[in-house]
């Protein structure tokens, strides 16, 4: 009886009542899990030289991570996990503009922290695979574990268009899934359908630039690699990476 009373009091003290704080923590956790799983799938593929993972498993990890993230925070913050989606919600007047920079910062911070977690998780594998040198290009590059880079043949203009189209298809698809005027998705299965949408985009639009579809997913981990030893080259348009 005393133990139950103590737990009840502890829950009351730890409960966060401020709605904005709850939403930010939900975004932080959901984005953190999303990026941690996504980057881990990439790290497993790269460091094992595709013996314990390949492009398909990497894409599946990213798509299923989106599903998990939505289940984590969908009922609290809406599980944006993506500044592009937050922006779209603002433009359609479904999300207040003053929250946009807050969510963007939280999502980018979560992505940065996730990159650090994956670096720790695959620390030995990364250094073993790279032969002790952290590079952005070359046969033993490891920067692509954390951020996306263009194929050798892709120009800056084509890369920009590629990301606008891929992210646009994602946003339009998610908006359509959320629209109650359309054919409804069975309640509770919306995250599964969104994951399938992400997977379809990865399968069809990932060749040019890796299909990040999410500014926070790219900027946070890229900033981490800059600070962790890959250097300023991570911010350059790298050609001849293979």
Describe this structure in words.
- Keywords: Cell membrane, Glycoprotein, Membrane, Repeat, Transmembrane, Transmembrane helix, Transport.
- GO terms for molecular function: glycerol channel activity; urea transmembrane transporter activity; water channel activity.
- It is found in: Cell membrane.
- The protein has helices at 2-14, 19-47, 55-73, 83-91, 100-121, 123-129, 156-178, 190-205, 215-230.
- It has 242 residues and is mainly alpha-helical.
- The protein has one domain (18-235): Up-down Bundle (Glycerol uptake facilitator protein), CATH 1.20.1080.
- The termini are far apart.
- The mean pLDDT is 91.
The major beta sheet can be summarized as: none
Class derived from helix and strand content: mainly alpha
- The CATH class is Mainly Alpha
Shape: globular
Q: Span between N and C termini?
A: 65 Å
Pfam family, one: MIP
Catalytic activity: glycerol(in) = glycerol(out); H2O(in) = H2O(out); urea(in) = urea(out)
Family: Belongs to the MIP/aquaporin (TC 1.A.8) family.
GO cellular component, one term: basolateral plasma membrane
């Amino acid at each position: 009886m005393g133990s139950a009373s103590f737990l009840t009091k502890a829950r009351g003290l730890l409960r966060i009542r401020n709605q904005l704080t709850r939403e930010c923590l939900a975004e932080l956790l959901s984005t953190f899990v999303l990026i941690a799983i996504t980057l881990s799938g990439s790290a497993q593929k790269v460091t094992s030289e595709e013996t314990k993972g390949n492009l398909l498993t990497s894409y599946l990890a990213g798509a299923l991570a989106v599903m998990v993230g939505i289940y984590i925070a969908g009922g609290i913050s809406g599980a944006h996990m993506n500044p592009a989606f937050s922006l779209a919600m603002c433009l359609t007047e479904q999300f207040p503009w003053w929250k946009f920079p807050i969510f963007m910062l939280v999502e980018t911070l979560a992505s940065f922290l996730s990159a650090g977690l994956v670096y720790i998780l695959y620390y030995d594998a990364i250094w073993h695979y790279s032969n002790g040198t952290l590079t952005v290009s070359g046969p033993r590059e490891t920067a692509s574990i954390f951020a996306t880079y263009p194929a050798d043949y892709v120009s800056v203009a084509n890369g920009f268009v590629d990301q606008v189209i891929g992210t646009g298809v994602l946003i339009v698809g998610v908006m359509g899934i959320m629209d109650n005027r359309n054919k409804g998705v069975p309640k509770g299965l919306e995250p599964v359908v969104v994951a399938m949408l992400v997977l379809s985009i990865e399968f069809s639009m990932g060749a040019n630039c890796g299909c990040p579809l999410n500014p926070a997913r790219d900027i946070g981990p890229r900033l981490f690699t800059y600070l962790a030893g890959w250097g300023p080259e991570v911010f350059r348009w790298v050609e001849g990476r293979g």
